[in-house]
Design goal:
Largest interface: A-B, 100 and 101 residues
Structural class of chain A: mainly alpha
Oligomer: homodimer
Distance between the termini of chain A: 17 Å
Number of helices of chain A: 27
Radius of gyration of chain A: 32 Å
Number of domains of chain A: 2
Largest sheet of chain A: 6 strands, mixed
Subcellular location (chains A, B): Membrane
Region (Disordered) (chains A, B): 1-28
Shape of chain A: elongated
GO cellular component, one term (chains A, B): membrane
Domain STAS (chains A, B): 527-650
Mean pLDDT of chain A: 85
Keywords (chains A, B): Membrane, Transmembrane, Transmembrane helix, Transport
Chain lengths: 658, 658
């Protein structure tokens, strides 16, 4: 440690040499290692490697390696249709699990579908249609065994809001529906396209924190919207922000509320909440909340039919078109200005749907410890929405609540989705007339009960405890949704996510390092208060790649550390700083602007008579510094393997701990 | 190193403890250090610190600290008008330098101004106007002593292109001019606004590499445009892409070229290039290229006047309005749709102008070793453009070529700009009629000569040598400009710059570490081929903050390393991996998604019977892992100060070097 510069001498070799031994410590190990200088990769090789890591980091073609042609085709087919893979191992024990799970999620989805279709300003049957075709396609192409496919609350609301901005569903229901199918078609195209071109990582840019906030905001918004049905209010705002919704509610307090509706609605809601509570308290009774919705529908429908409460102002579903999905291929706007509008809406809603589905898929895959290929999932989800848009479905995706029930009731494969789909078909063909007397209030209660599950209090508390910035992102998205609109909330969520990334690369942290007494280790003096600075030497660590976006800041910041330190030393009449060592371990990469900044730093320090050294530059950094002749410029003897070596070479000696 | 787990024992303390001593090495130093766990900062404090580092990292209020109120006002005035500061120390010797520099750049700028105004589709006098008012304002408010203010080629071209997309300058010259002033006004507002709100860092997002490509592309485009004047072509395309320009040139080859014009143009260009060559060869003759343009103007004007070549088809300037800038405050579109258009154009052109000016200011500040406050500069540049827009000027900024001449001819302060400005006024008031017979061909030659200097071959070669990605960004911007348009080139430049940042945060590098034989140091096995892996232990380093955008990738990548390593070990019949150590030194931060990914990683490893340990997590990372209870989960004894400690605790023993 306390070796003087003359001890070391100026290295004569043209190589970058670092001595890791230290005499004073009587270290018996003596070894000389050079800072590794990798051979420069060719442009082509480098480009290929970048492309591979960016798009194919999960090595999807691994199983295809060294297989015969026929086998490759078979493997390819199985990759596109995983059902061919798991179908071969399917047996009765699995079917039993899938049957129970499928029946349960069917009983959950039927009332939800009818309610969610309303969120999208569509007639009830479109919700049921969307629970028929897409789950079948997914069962053939998807890789997740637990996800339950169908319409979901948040996407329905988002789609409804975006579509209403373009066409009034009350005045032009046909055009509105056509635009909905167009948007669904493009949502599928976008989803499948992202997967095919292995661009799935774009959805990673919506941070978890922002999603938590967005989901909670959407849940509150949806729940508030349901007050219309729950309280039997006639005139209700079309807007979704909390202020106007509450005005609608209070405005209707004297003449708009219908006590029969309220009675039905609130008692159903109470029943559902109690059922949920029972299920939570006793895990073995998980089936209670799962069948409660269908039970309330049956009971309340029967009640209304008996009492003819609909004559006393209780709004009822009235009519659901009977029969399975009609074709809608001719309804999609293939040309014209609505094509573009449809694409935009499909893009936004499709991405949100994708984010939700992939998040669900990953969660359950992690629980059961299998790997889910995000890009392959996207192709499956996209295809299912493309085919859905041709068969009168709107955007389907994975539902959080139904997937959880699917998992808990013991589903084993995607067959549970097929079962659910078949039950829905049966409903469409046979039972729909029975829904005539179902009061809207019970649907409202079911939706409120379902979306409350989207508010993840625990996650918010964790965000608050763990990461301030994430918490702010979450709150931004939440308040954006409830006070302005779903789109604005989504925009805020995306903007905050990006701002965080940009902030990281624009204003990276820097830290002064000190020696941990009795060791060769140098650590941040703020994190390790016992670390002691080396007199005459300033060791500073840069915590980021040095890129164009932060190169000037990094340079300025190091110079400011120097000024601050010099001032402190002057006050205490201590020897001034003659050496600056930049610890480069966290500097994972550098670009030409970064090298330029280092050159400026070197010049500034030179004018002040201070020497500059770099410790432990990484592979790419050394290669680039070398290519830019910067190493030759500051001297190859100024590049060290560790901070310790650099300090030793400068003759620095940490103040012994007292 | 070869210490077994039982040696260490399970730490009983609830603190995170790491042992840095190692018996076998007979290290005499024994010290126990804990991984520092910082006290968590309050939301307010953390927010304040982030704001400070983001917006006020250069501590602009430092000189105001502890001053009296009167002194503070004075300091504030001096901060806004630096002329009050340096003006007090002004003396004759400085004036001599400024006078010579000012006269030289005036002689350069007058012919350039007339030509550049044409690039912006404005009459020649507007170029001269722009060299009068803005330099005066800048002299009072700017901090750079070397920058030469006025119209510049690239911004003129960009402004001209953007404005022409809205209004045809030939058909509606008045409206076109009004929109130009409106755009200039908003460019100034944007510039000053960014500076006032200390958002100057936004211009850092345009990478140096992209600017080099954009500038070179713009230079080629501008030079090609000048073929119209140089070859005396009558009908010429309004587009700027190389293909249509060359079509115009070849299309006119039989009937459109005028040999008299070509003779004048090419001989002037040859003269200018020779002068430039002389100046480069002999640094003491730097004034030769500086006065050459004015000389060619005078000689060629005289020649045309004598020979009346204009009657033989040589296009001449003909008329420049005499007198100083008229007011244009009433010409700006304060309301209406053109206000918004003007804002958009001003935003784009203003940002490009700002980037250029700040880059120039920084370059020369670094040469003379003084600090330039980017935000203050922006306020000065913005104010100068706002006032310029009210006095018939279009967007002014710093000119690369003229600033270099200003510096070389020995300017000392911004007084050289004042001198230049006064010479321009004199020109406007007295000399403009003399420009009547100046041939357009000589202006074209002067512009070509000037913009060739914007092509920085050396920088491009350096980019190619040093950084592949930067080189691609540069080429993307270059080809975007020359084959499509200036806007598209600019868009490509910005997009590539952002893509680079996003790629960095989405696909960070990871590396396997090995022990450098005979030391305690662990380094990347690819960079240091001599590094040996520890049997049974996989040490992997993650080279980035773990954020939502890369958390899934990082987890997957570590698991893939594991699979790859296991396969290799199995092939060679070596002991399999039981311990995974993640070196966290470069992991400068983590967010909730990142912690989630670590939890998933931990679960996956647990299922495989593999233990997980973290080495040297940083300050923020430890705090967050602690807050999220992750440390409690994997065990506090699994957090180590160094990789060496972790390896020792797992009983690992690096294979001795052969």
């Amino acid at each position: 440690m306390g070796r003087s510069v003359s001890d070391v001498g100026e290295p004569k070799e043209s190589d970058i040499v670092s001595h890791t031994s230290s005499h004073r410590q009587r270290d018996n190990v003596k070894a000389v290692h050079k800072v590794g200088l990798p051979t420069r990769k060719k442009l082509g090789t480098e480009f290929k490697e970048t492309v591979k890591e960016t798009f194919f980091h999960d090595d999807p073609l691994r199983p295809f390696k060294g297989q015969s042609k026929g086998k490759k085709v078979l493997l390819g087919l199985r990759a596109v249709f995983p059902i061919l893979e798991w179908g071969r191992r399917y047996n009765f024990s699995k079917f039993r699990g899938d049957l129970i799970a499928g029946l349960t999620i069917a009983s959950l989805c039927i009332p939800q579908d009818i309610g969610y279709a309303k969120l999208a300003n569509l007639e009830p049957q479109y919700g049921l249609y969307t629970s028929f075709v897409p789950p079948l396609i997914y069962a053939a192409m998807g890789s997740s065994s637990e996800i339950a496919i169908g319409p979901v609350a948040v996407v329905s609301l988002l789609l409804g809001t975006l579509l209403r901005d373009e066409i009034d569903p009350d005045k032009h229901p046909t055009e509105y529906r056509r635009l909905a199918f167009t948007a669904t078609f493009f949502a599928g195209v976008v989803q499948a396209g992202l997967g095919l071109f292995r661009l799935g990582f774009v959805i990673e840019f919506l941070s978890h924190a922002a999603i938590v906030g967005f989901m909670a905001g959407a849940a509150v918004t949806i729940a508030l919207q349901q007050l219309k049905g729950l309280l039997g209010i006639g005139k209700f705002t079309k807007k979704t922000d909390i202020i106007r919704v509450m005005q609608s509610v209070w405005g209707a307090v004297h003449h708009g509320w219908n006590w029969q509706t309220i009675l039905i609605g609130l008692s159903c809601l109470a029943f559902l909440l109690v059922a949920k509570y029972i299920g939570k308290r006793n895990k073995r009774l998980f089936w209670v909340p799962a069948i409660a919705p269908l039970l309330t529908v049956i009971l309340s429908t029967f009640f209304v039919y008996i009492t003819r409460a609909d004559k006393k102002g209780v709004a009822i579903v009235n009519h659901i078109r009977k029969g399975v999905n009609p074709s809608s291929a001719d309804k999609i706007y293939w040309t014209g200005s609505y094509t573009q509008t449809g694409f935009k809406i499909g893009l936004v809603a499709g991405l949100v749907a994708l984010t939700e589905a992939v998040a669900i898929g990953r969660t359950f895959a992690a629980m059961r410890d299998y790997h889910l290929d995000g890009n392959k999932e996207m192709v499956a989800l996209g295809t299912m929405n493309i085919i859905g848009s041709l068969t009168s479905c709107y955007i389907a995706t994975g539902s959080f609540s139904r997937s959880a029930v699917n998992f808990m009731t013991g589903c084993r494969t995607a067959v549970s989705n097929i079962i659910m789909s078949l039950v829905v078909v049966l409903t469409l063909e046979v039972i729909t007339p029975l829904f005539k007397y179902t009061p809207n209030a019970v649907l409202a209660a079911i939706i409120i009960n379902a979306v409350l599950g989207l508010i993840d209090f625990e996650a918010v508390v964790k965000l608050w405890k763990v990461d301030t910035f994430d918490f702010l992102a979450c709150m931004g998205a939440f308040f954006g949704v409830i006070f302005v609109s779903v789109e604005i909330g989504l925009l805020i969520a995306v903007a905050i996510s990006f701002a965080k990334i940009l902030l990281q690369v624009t204003r990276p942290r820097t830290a002064l390092l000190g020696n941990l007494p009795g060791t060769n280790i140098y650590r941040n003096v703020e994190q390790y208060p016992e670390a002691t600075k080396v007199p005459g030497v300033m060791v500073v660590r840069v915590d980021s790649a040095i890129y164009f976006s932060n190169s000037n800041y990094v340079k300025d910041r190091i110079l400011r550390w120097l000024i601050d330190e010099q001032e402190k030393l002057e006050e205490n009449k201590l020897p001034k700083i003659n050496f600056v060592i930049v610890e480069m371990s966290p500097v994972i990469n550098i670009d030409t602007s970064g090298i330029h900044a280092l050159e400026d730093l070197y010049k500034s320090l030179q004018k002040k008579g201070i020497q500059l050294a770099l410790a432990n530059p990484g592979e790419q950094v050394v290669a680039k510094l070398h290519a830019a002749d910067f190493i030759e410029r500051i001297g190859q003897d100024k590049i060290f393997l560790t901070v310790k070596d650099a300090v030793a070479a400068f003759g620095g000696k940490p103040v012994p701990s007292v």
